[in-house]
Design brief:
278 residues, alpha/beta, 8-stranded mixed beta sheet, 8 strands, 37% helix
Amino acid sequence: MMIVMTALYARGGKAIRLWKDVPALHGAYSTMYVHRAEGTNTGAAVIICPGGSYHHLGLYNEGYKSAVWFAQKGVTAFMLRYRTAENGHHYPAMMQDVQRAIQLVRESASEYGIDVNKVGVIGYSAGGHLVTMAGALWQTHDELVALGIDHEVSLRPDFVIPVYPVVSMNDELAHRWSRKSLLGKNQTAERKNEFSMELQIPADMPPSYIVVCKDDPIVDYRNSFALYDAMKAAGIQSQLAVYDWGKHGFGMLNNAFMKEFHWNETMWNDFLKDIVKK
Protein backbone atom coordinates (compact mmCIF):
# COMPACT_ATOMS: atom_id res chain seq x y z
CA MET A 1 0.00 0.00 0.00
CA MET A 2 2.83 2.40 0.88
CA ILE A 3 4.46 1.82 -2.52
CA VAL A 4 1.19 2.60 -4.31
CA MET A 5 0.64 5.79 -2.31
CA THR A 6 4.21 6.95 -2.83
CA ALA A 7 3.83 6.50 -6.58
CA LEU A 8 0.60 8.49 -6.46
CA TYR A 9 2.18 11.35 -4.59
CA ALA A 10 5.26 11.41 -6.80
CA ARG A 11 2.91 11.92 -9.78
CA GLY A 12 5.43 11.08 -12.47
CA GLY A 13 8.47 12.68 -10.87
CA LYS A 14 11.64 10.77 -11.73
CA ALA A 15 12.55 8.46 -8.84
CA ILE A 16 16.13 8.44 -7.56
CA ARG A 17 17.04 5.78 -5.02
CA LEU A 18 19.56 7.33 -2.68
CA TRP A 19 21.51 4.26 -1.67
CA LYS A 20 21.39 1.92 -4.66
CA ASP A 21 25.17 2.19 -5.15
CA VAL A 22 26.06 1.95 -1.45
CA PRO A 23 26.29 -1.72 -0.38
CA ALA A 24 25.79 -0.99 3.32
CA LEU A 25 22.41 0.64 2.68
CA HIS A 26 21.46 -0.92 -0.64
CA GLY A 27 18.09 -2.09 0.69
CA ALA A 28 17.07 1.30 2.13
CA TYR A 29 13.85 2.65 0.61
CA SER A 30 15.04 6.28 0.71
CA THR A 31 14.01 7.93 -2.56
CA MET A 32 13.85 11.38 -4.18
CA TYR A 33 11.18 12.30 -6.72
CA VAL A 34 12.28 14.98 -9.16
CA HIS A 35 9.98 17.71 -10.44
CA ARG A 36 11.87 19.72 -13.03
CA ALA A 37 11.71 23.50 -13.13
CA GLU A 38 8.98 24.78 -15.42
CA GLY A 39 9.12 27.91 -17.55
CA THR A 40 12.23 29.95 -16.81
CA ASN A 41 14.70 27.85 -14.84
CA THR A 42 16.10 29.93 -11.97
CA GLY A 43 18.95 27.46 -11.49
CA ALA A 44 17.80 26.87 -7.93
CA ALA A 45 16.91 23.52 -6.39
CA VAL A 46 15.05 22.61 -3.22
CA ILE A 47 14.92 19.33 -1.33
CA ILE A 48 11.53 18.88 0.35
CA CYS A 49 11.27 17.01 3.65
CA PRO A 50 7.66 16.28 4.65
CA GLY A 51 6.71 16.00 8.30
CA GLY A 52 5.16 13.18 10.27
CA SER A 53 6.77 13.15 13.73
CA TYR A 54 9.81 11.30 12.33
CA HIS A 55 7.41 8.35 12.32
CA HIS A 56 5.68 8.63 8.92
CA LEU A 57 5.57 11.19 6.10
CA GLY A 58 2.91 13.63 4.89
CA LEU A 59 3.86 13.01 1.27
CA TYR A 60 0.91 14.71 -0.41
CA ASN A 61 0.19 18.08 1.21
CA GLU A 62 3.76 18.75 2.30
CA GLY A 63 5.68 16.81 -0.35
CA TYR A 64 3.95 16.59 -3.71
CA LYS A 65 2.04 19.88 -3.44
CA SER A 66 5.23 21.70 -2.48
CA ALA A 67 7.16 20.12 -5.35
CA VAL A 68 4.57 21.26 -7.89
CA TRP A 69 4.57 24.82 -6.51
CA PHE A 70 8.36 25.15 -6.54
CA ALA A 71 8.61 23.71 -10.05
CA GLN A 72 6.12 26.33 -11.25
CA LYS A 73 8.42 28.97 -9.78
CA GLY A 74 11.32 27.68 -11.88
CA VAL A 75 12.94 25.79 -9.00
CA THR A 76 13.81 22.12 -9.51
CA ALA A 77 12.16 20.27 -6.63
CA PHE A 78 13.26 16.99 -5.08
CA MET A 79 10.62 15.44 -2.81
CA LEU A 80 12.47 13.30 -0.28
CA ARG A 81 11.02 10.10 1.12
CA TYR A 82 13.41 9.64 4.03
CA ARG A 83 13.52 6.80 6.51
CA THR A 84 11.35 7.02 9.64
CA ALA A 85 10.55 5.17 12.85
CA GLU A 86 7.49 3.59 11.25
CA ASN A 87 9.95 1.26 9.56
CA GLY A 88 12.27 0.97 12.54
CA HIS A 89 14.64 3.83 11.74
CA HIS A 90 16.02 6.41 14.17
CA TYR A 91 18.91 8.87 14.02
CA PRO A 92 21.20 8.90 12.05
CA ALA A 93 19.05 7.42 9.23
CA MET A 94 17.16 10.67 8.57
CA MET A 95 20.31 12.78 8.55
CA GLN A 96 22.04 10.29 6.28
CA ASP A 97 19.15 10.60 3.84
CA VAL A 98 19.00 14.39 3.67
CA GLN A 99 22.78 14.69 3.40
CA ARG A 100 22.86 12.06 0.67
CA ALA A 101 20.11 13.99 -1.13
CA ILE A 102 22.15 17.21 -0.99
CA GLN A 103 25.20 15.34 -2.28
CA LEU A 104 23.35 13.75 -5.20
CA VAL A 105 21.57 16.97 -6.19
CA ARG A 106 24.85 18.89 -6.34
CA GLU A 107 26.61 16.07 -8.19
CA SER A 108 23.83 15.97 -10.81
CA ALA A 109 23.51 19.74 -11.11
CA SER A 110 24.42 19.87 -14.80
CA GLU A 111 21.72 17.33 -15.67
CA TYR A 112 18.98 19.56 -14.26
CA GLY A 113 20.43 23.00 -14.95
CA ILE A 114 21.08 23.64 -11.26
CA ASP A 115 23.52 26.14 -9.77
CA VAL A 116 25.39 24.26 -7.02
CA ASN A 117 25.29 27.44 -4.93
CA LYS A 118 21.48 27.55 -4.97
CA VAL A 119 20.57 24.22 -3.37
CA GLY A 120 18.31 24.60 -0.36
CA VAL A 121 15.96 22.63 1.87
CA ILE A 122 12.41 23.06 3.12
CA GLY A 123 10.87 20.91 5.83
CA TYR A 124 7.57 20.69 7.66
CA SER A 125 7.11 19.81 11.35
CA ALA A 126 9.65 17.04 12.06
CA GLY A 127 10.93 17.70 8.54
CA GLY A 128 11.55 21.26 9.74
CA HIS A 129 13.79 19.85 12.42
CA LEU A 130 15.56 17.70 9.84
CA VAL A 131 16.35 20.59 7.49
CA THR A 132 17.50 22.72 10.42
CA MET A 133 19.87 19.91 11.39
CA ALA A 134 21.08 19.81 7.80
CA GLY A 135 21.94 23.50 8.02
CA ALA A 136 23.34 23.52 11.53
CA LEU A 137 25.20 20.21 11.88
CA TRP A 138 26.57 19.64 8.39
CA GLN A 139 30.20 19.83 9.57
CA THR A 140 30.00 18.26 13.02
CA HIS A 141 27.68 15.43 11.95
CA ASP A 142 28.87 14.40 8.49
CA GLU A 143 27.03 11.10 8.32
CA LEU A 144 28.28 10.34 4.80
CA VAL A 145 31.90 10.29 5.90
CA ALA A 146 30.79 8.13 8.81
CA LEU A 147 29.46 5.69 6.20
CA GLY A 148 32.76 5.75 4.33
CA ILE A 149 31.41 7.88 1.47
CA ASP A 150 33.93 10.38 0.12
CA HIS A 151 32.31 13.47 -1.35
CA GLU A 152 33.76 16.60 -2.88
CA VAL A 153 30.59 18.68 -2.79
CA SER A 154 29.53 20.64 0.26
CA LEU A 155 26.70 19.27 2.38
CA ARG A 156 25.74 22.76 3.55
CA PRO A 157 22.37 23.84 2.10
CA ASP A 158 22.25 27.37 0.72
CA PHE A 159 18.95 28.19 2.40
CA VAL A 160 16.74 26.56 5.03
CA ILE A 161 12.95 26.90 5.35
CA PRO A 162 11.47 25.25 8.48
CA VAL A 163 7.66 25.36 8.49
CA TYR A 164 5.87 24.84 11.84
CA PRO A 165 9.07 23.04 12.87
CA VAL A 166 9.93 20.73 15.70
CA VAL A 167 12.99 22.41 17.19
CA SER A 168 13.72 21.48 20.80
CA MET A 169 14.16 18.03 22.31
CA ASN A 170 14.01 19.35 25.87
CA ASP A 171 10.93 18.72 27.98
CA GLU A 172 9.51 22.25 28.08
CA LEU A 173 9.06 22.51 24.31
CA ALA A 174 9.60 19.05 22.88
CA HIS A 175 7.13 17.30 20.62
CA ARG A 176 7.59 14.00 22.39
CA TRP A 177 6.48 11.70 19.58
CA SER A 178 9.05 13.28 17.26
CA ARG A 179 11.71 13.02 19.96
CA LYS A 180 10.97 9.34 20.55
CA SER A 181 10.98 8.61 16.83
CA LEU A 182 14.25 10.47 16.28
CA LEU A 183 16.23 9.35 19.31
CA GLY A 184 14.66 6.01 20.13
CA LYS A 185 15.55 4.91 23.64
CA ASN A 186 18.69 7.06 23.77
CA GLN A 187 17.10 10.09 25.43
CA THR A 188 19.76 11.23 27.87
CA ALA A 189 20.00 14.92 28.77
CA GLU A 190 23.15 15.15 26.66
CA ARG A 191 21.38 13.61 23.67
CA LYS A 192 18.39 15.93 24.04
CA ASN A 193 20.68 18.96 24.05
CA GLU A 194 22.64 17.68 21.07
CA PHE A 195 19.51 17.62 18.93
CA SER A 196 17.79 20.71 20.34
CA MET A 197 18.37 23.01 17.42
CA GLU A 198 17.98 26.20 19.42
CA LEU A 199 21.22 25.16 21.15
CA GLN A 200 23.13 24.21 18.01
CA ILE A 201 23.06 27.18 15.62
CA PRO A 202 26.58 27.81 14.24
CA ALA A 203 28.03 30.98 12.78
CA ASP A 204 27.74 29.55 9.26
CA MET A 205 24.06 28.58 9.49
CA PRO A 206 22.46 29.23 6.07
CA PRO A 207 19.90 32.02 5.61
CA SER A 208 16.63 30.79 7.06
CA TYR A 209 12.91 31.53 6.88
CA ILE A 210 10.69 30.13 9.64
CA VAL A 211 6.89 29.84 9.41
CA VAL A 212 4.57 29.19 12.37
CA CYS A 213 1.00 29.72 13.56
CA LYS A 214 0.26 30.70 17.15
CA ASP A 215 -2.70 28.31 17.35
CA ASP A 216 -0.61 25.26 16.42
CA PRO A 217 -2.08 22.41 18.53
CA ILE A 218 0.63 19.87 17.68
CA VAL A 219 4.04 21.54 17.99
CA ASP A 220 4.33 24.38 20.51
CA TYR A 221 4.81 27.55 18.45
CA ARG A 222 7.48 28.68 20.92
CA ASN A 223 9.80 26.19 19.22
CA SER A 224 9.95 28.56 16.26
CA PHE A 225 10.56 31.58 18.46
CA ALA A 226 13.41 29.78 20.22
CA LEU A 227 14.98 28.88 16.87
CA TYR A 228 14.64 32.42 15.55
CA ASP A 229 16.14 33.90 18.73
CA ALA A 230 19.10 31.51 18.43
CA MET A 231 19.66 32.52 14.81
CA LYS A 232 19.53 36.22 15.60
CA ALA A 233 21.97 35.71 18.48
CA ALA A 234 24.34 33.97 16.06
CA GLY A 235 23.99 36.79 13.51
CA ILE A 236 22.28 34.60 10.90
CA GLN A 237 20.19 36.12 8.11
CA SER A 238 16.77 34.91 9.20
CA GLN A 239 13.10 35.78 9.17
CA LEU A 240 10.18 34.57 11.28
CA ALA A 241 6.69 34.65 9.73
CA VAL A 242 4.09 34.38 12.50
CA TYR A 243 0.38 33.92 11.82
CA ASP A 244 -2.36 34.11 14.44
CA TRP A 245 -4.22 31.12 13.02
CA GLY A 246 -3.62 28.25 10.63
CA LYS A 247 -2.86 25.41 13.05
CA HIS A 248 -0.52 22.64 11.84
CA GLY A 249 -0.02 20.51 8.76
CA PHE A 250 -1.36 22.89 6.11
CA GLY A 251 1.63 22.40 3.85
CA MET A 252 0.76 23.88 0.48
CA LEU A 253 -2.82 22.66 0.27
CA ASN A 254 -5.37 25.12 -1.09
CA ASN A 255 -7.06 25.35 2.30
CA ALA A 256 -8.62 28.24 4.23
CA PHE A 257 -5.28 29.33 5.69
CA MET A 258 -3.57 29.32 2.30
CA LYS A 259 -6.43 31.22 0.66
CA GLU A 260 -6.24 33.88 3.36
CA PHE A 261 -2.49 34.34 3.70
CA HIS A 262 -0.63 32.65 0.80
CA TRP A 263 2.32 32.04 3.10
CA ASN A 264 4.38 30.49 0.31
CA GLU A 265 4.06 33.54 -1.92
CA THR A 266 5.06 35.74 1.01
CA MET A 267 8.07 33.52 1.66
CA TRP A 268 9.01 33.71 -2.03
CA ASN A 269 8.72 37.49 -2.25
CA ASP A 270 10.29 38.32 1.13
CA PHE A 271 13.07 35.72 1.17
CA LEU A 272 13.67 33.18 -1.55
CA LYS A 273 13.29 35.27 -4.69
CA ASP A 274 16.40 37.31 -3.88
CA ILE A 275 18.41 34.18 -3.15
CA VAL A 276 17.55 32.40 -6.38
CA LYS A 277 18.15 35.52 -8.48
CA LYS A 278 21.70 36.08 -7.23
